């Protein structure tokens, strides 16, 4: 992949862009192998890949410049603002939206927030695209509600220019810190969630829900989890840190009759999306609750056949590892966005044998990757 911003020394987000893609994969696989050293692995599978460019379904743009000439891109460094509208990681369908957003900022009078002066209103624009429908979810992160009415009044023009806009919201983030969003979300459209679809499973994304940024590889990740579970002797499972339910819904439908599923996620918004998906595909023996995953596990004595965990970068931690060891489900399926913390957790799960491990290259041109690991109680 070629990138003019990287060549000019303006953006270093893709640290490995100068490295041949085959070498990137080899280095990631080597890193995973080193992290898993000391554990016997029955099957270390080849990495799963997707496109090398135009794969992102989400843009997170810092807004700088002026009302008349806004800049969408990176935070200002040494007095210079970098525009990312031509970043090759975005598909053309998203790149075509950015010029219209710049025009809208001017029409609505949304003054870009100036970090040094602590003045202005518009901090970020967050854009998400559904690969299934081409629909868009657009979020404006404002310092306050001062410009909210102006934004509302200007929206009809933007909606006429972008009929694919499904969900539009405003997030209020008043803190002068490097924090992406605040607690208050104001939805400005009748539709409150954007529908995506992976492997014929509908998934719904609300403004504050987490969702993978590489849809093609994420779809392969979910399908792999389903395939692995389909050959296991399981009839019940927990999906901890379940998000909008992607893993759990795929695995629940891996067998006939369907696997009984309990999904747990701290975000109430994500849980509402998961429930909507389960209803859409007609699943009945499904329960989703907005709870802390570790506290849920500690307070329930019934042992499922399978526990699926998909934690944030910090991993599942010592307490949950200890509890899983004590409750001893037959299988644990661990999906990780940080192989280092996953490796730490696996060292705490010594009663489990590593059956399969596979790397998913969700983030080409960086050192980051996702990994799926299947564990069986010895």
What would you say this structure looks like, in words?
The protein has an 8-stranded mixed β-sheet with strand order 1-15-16-14-13-10-11-12, sandwiched between helices. Strands 3-2-4-5-6-7 form a 6-stranded mixed β-sheet, covered by helices on one side. The mean pLDDT is 95. The protein folds into 2 domains: 213 residues, Rossmann fold, CATH 3.40.50.150; 135 residues, OB fold (Dihydrolipoamide Acetyltransferase, E2P), CATH 2.40.50. By secondary structure, the protein is an alpha/beta fold.
Q: What structural category arises from helix and sheet content?
A: alpha/beta
CATH topology of the largest domain: Rossmann fold
Total number of helices: 11
At CATH's second level, what is the architecture of the largest domain?
A: 3-Layer(aba) Sandwich
Cα end-to-end separation: 45 Å
Inertia-based shape: globular
Q: Kindly estimate the percentage of residues that lie in beta strands according to DSSP.
A: 25-35%
EC number: 2.1.1.189
InterPro entries: 23SrRNA_MeTrfase_RlmC, MeTrfase_TrmA_AS, MeTrfase_TrmA_CS, SAM-dependent_MTases_sf, U5_MeTrfase_fam
Active site: 337, 337 (nucleophile)
Keywords: 4Fe-4S, Iron, Iron-sulfur, Metal-binding, Methyltransferase, rRNA processing, S-adenosyl-L-methionine, Transferase
Can you summarize this structure?
The chain is an alpha/beta fold.
């Amino acid at each position: 992949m070629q990138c003019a911003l990287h060549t000019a020394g303006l953006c270093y987000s893709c640290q490995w862009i100068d490295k041949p893609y085959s070498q990137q994969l080899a280095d990631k696989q080597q890193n995973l192998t080193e992290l898993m050293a000391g554990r016997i692995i029955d099957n270390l599978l080849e990495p799963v890949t997707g496109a090398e460019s135009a794969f992102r379904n989400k843009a997170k743009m810092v807004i700088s410049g002026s009302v008349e000439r806004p800049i969408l891109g990176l935070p200002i460094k040494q007095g210079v603002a970098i525009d990312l509208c031509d970043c090759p990681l975005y598909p053309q369908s998203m790149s075509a939206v950015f010029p219209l957003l710049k025009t809208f900022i001017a029409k609505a009078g949304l003054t870009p927030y100036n970090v040094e002066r602590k003045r202005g209103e518009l901090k970020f624009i967050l854009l998400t695209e559904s690969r299934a429908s081409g629909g868009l979810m657009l979020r404006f992160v404002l310092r306050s509600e001062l410009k909210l009415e102006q934004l509302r009044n200007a929206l009809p023009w933007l909606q006429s220019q972008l009929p694919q806009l499904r969900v539009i919201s405003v997030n209020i983030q008043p803190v002068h810190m490097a924090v992406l969003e605040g607690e208050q979300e104001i939805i400005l459209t009748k539709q409150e969630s954007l529908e995506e679809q992976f492997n014929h499973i509908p998934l719904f994304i609300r403004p504050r829900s987490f969702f993978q940024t590489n849809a093609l590889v994420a779809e392969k990740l979910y399908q792999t989890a389903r395939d692995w579970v389909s050959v296991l002797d399981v009839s019940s499972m927990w999906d901890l840190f379940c998000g909008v339910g992607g893993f759990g819904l795929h695995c629940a439908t891996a067998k006939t009759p369907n696997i009984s599923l309990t999904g747990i996620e701290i975000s109430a918004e994500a849980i509402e999306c998961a429930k909507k998906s389960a209803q859409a595909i007609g699943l009945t023996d499904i329960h989703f609750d907005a709870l802390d995953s570790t506290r849920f596990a500690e307070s329930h004595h019934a042992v499922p056949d399978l526990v699926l965990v998909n934690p944030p970068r910090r991993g599942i931690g010592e307490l949950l590892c200890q509890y899983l060891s004590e409750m001893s489900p037959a299988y644990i399926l661990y999906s990780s966005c940080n192989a280092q913390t996953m490796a730490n957790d696996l060292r705490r799960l010594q009663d489990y044998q590593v059956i399969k491990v596979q790397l998913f290259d969700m983030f080409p041109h960086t050192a980051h990757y996702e990994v799926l690991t299947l564990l069986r109680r010895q």
